[in-house]
Model the fold of this input.
Amino acid sequence: MAISATLKAGHAGGWRKFLLFSSGSACAILTMITPGISPLHAAQSDAADGPKVVFEEIVVSARKRDESLQSVPDSVSVFGSRTIENAGITNIKDFAQLTPNLVITEQLRPGIQTVSLRGMTTVQGGQAPFAMIVDGVQQPSMDFINQELFDIERIEVLRGPQGTLYGGGAVGGAINVITKRPSDQLELSGKLGYSSGDTKTGTAVVSGPLISDKASFRASVFYVNSDGLVENTASDKKADFREEYVLRGSLYLMPRDYIDITLQASYTNGDAGALALAPVTTAQFDDFSILPALDTESTDKRELQSYSGKVDIFLDGVTLTSITSYNDADQTLVGDGDFSAAPIFGQLWEQDSQAFNQELRLTSEGSGPLRWVGGAFFQDRKIKDFTYFGGFDANDNLDPFSIREDVKKSESWAVFGQASYYITDALDLTLGLRYDRDKQTAVDLFVPGSEIKKPFEELQPKVSLSYNWSDSVMTYATFARGFRTGGFNPLNSTADRVYDNEVSDNFELGVKTQFLDNRLIVNVSAFHIDFSDQQFFFSRATDQGVFRNVINIPKTDVNGFEVEVTARPLASLTLQGSVGYNDTTIKNFNGTGLFDGNRTPQVNKLTMALSADWTHPVTDSMDVIARVDYHHRGDVFWDIDNLLRTPSKDFVNLRLGLDTDHWTLALVGRNITDTQIPGAVGPDAFGPGLHLRTTSRTRSWGGEFRFRF
Done:
């Protein structure tokens, strides 16, 4: 069976096709990629001396140019389309389970996630600790991060600050998602699935040429309808129900041999359960028999729109790229306000955000010792945040006693450049620099004179030196600065109105190796991070509502390492493993010694993952496929006092099926150990020792049918 990966060619002429062959027992073994390891396609030779595994590298674009992944002096994990399918990756949480030192769990509603990456955590109402880029378009806020991943060609995860190329928000790294591109031949594919919770899913994709070979299209649709898995003891309806559909389309044009144009649009519309919080004491915190009891059906309705246009002009030795995008997110959350079965309080939360992005850059062709990229970025963003909190009157109507409408505006711009130069055939030096400036304003429309303005700015350098000791061993040393822009708390927050930039200085050493004719790949990195003004989020429930707060911790240190291994003992079997370790220490909380020496909340100290992917032919045209994934999350504290703790947890996913050239039928088990963890946590939300906590989904079994023509 042959599979093809279509990669962007770095010169006039449009697309370059790479045909990667696999057959018999070696097909479908596209493995998860470890830092600096190529996405490897296995090929079985027909030679008389038996099967021989041959590996091919895939070009990645994580650093805004096409590069061999093995040569990138950064910690990078890559998931190819076959791994995405075999591992059942459908959202950002799924590939986080396979990535060291990256933990993502569900939170209060679909547009908010609890994120930890190398000791950096979620700031609700602020930026994620990483930049997320979809087909070259940087997503403007966390609202666009948790979207269904379908029809995906590749996912690239860069760990460590990527501020030089991606600016504010890339303080911990960057996630680069590349969807499948329009094809020059007619294609039709899809997936149907059914699983626990009466969960029904469907995907359909069609792609092909238009009038001439100068134009092609791709259109896809996704739909899910689920009753959910998390019980709500005050209602017959599950707390995590979901119904959503996604429409996506792209158009590729080549009006001249030296011009490529890609137009894309995406639309998401859905309803989902939200605010599934249960009040618990410290002693009850890890007791997940205590379930939410919401008298008011808590629902989050969201509508996401994304439109972008990318133009590449291939000039003599350089490529000029323009990326223009517009994103709009409308979200309405209606739900319980007291998180009990009694109709006491309710709340309404509406958020509307729009962002316009424009990026221009020049990229060298990269054929000589000097490779460089430089450009400018502009963003205009506006967020309306309306909060309505109150009690119920005699007719069960919500009678508000707290109304807030915050309007935030942001105009930001940046200039950046990065260059790499081979000092010798083995020694490569990379230098980068970026300057970001973000002018923000905020006002509560219900409070006259509440407007506040402040610019946030930062200079972000990067220096990296790599050395190729041989064709199979490369080492690197990197210093990079990242930052997450500051912002404003709500006017009636219990914290200061302004919180400052979070800045991280990251020092990293790494080695990337391949042994035994590339059957064994081992990659190791160690890092130290100096945090200045780390942003820390907490919430408080009062008689006037639930308030979000962000404060700065003046100094925090993080020390850690990551190890990833891929082994191919047999042509039909791929084994993978990874370990990530974070040791976060608060060095200065407020100058008084309070909390000094404590661990940063929401950061798992240890993450581990193991997987086995096996394929075996049963006929000339059919294979048995099997995959097992195990991942471990170490203990984590949820409060700054380090009193509220979740112990270590273990998870197992399974997949077993039959695979042919045109269809795949599989049995799928998720979280078969039925392990549960918190997602959203409100430490001491109702007072000392009285917390709010959500619960993750329980065990799920189901089946999938995929087809492709």
Notes: Residues 1-52 have pLDDT under 50 and may be disordered. Helices lie at 81-86, 92-96, 163-166. The radius of gyration is 25 Å. The first strand starts at residue 2 and ends at 8.
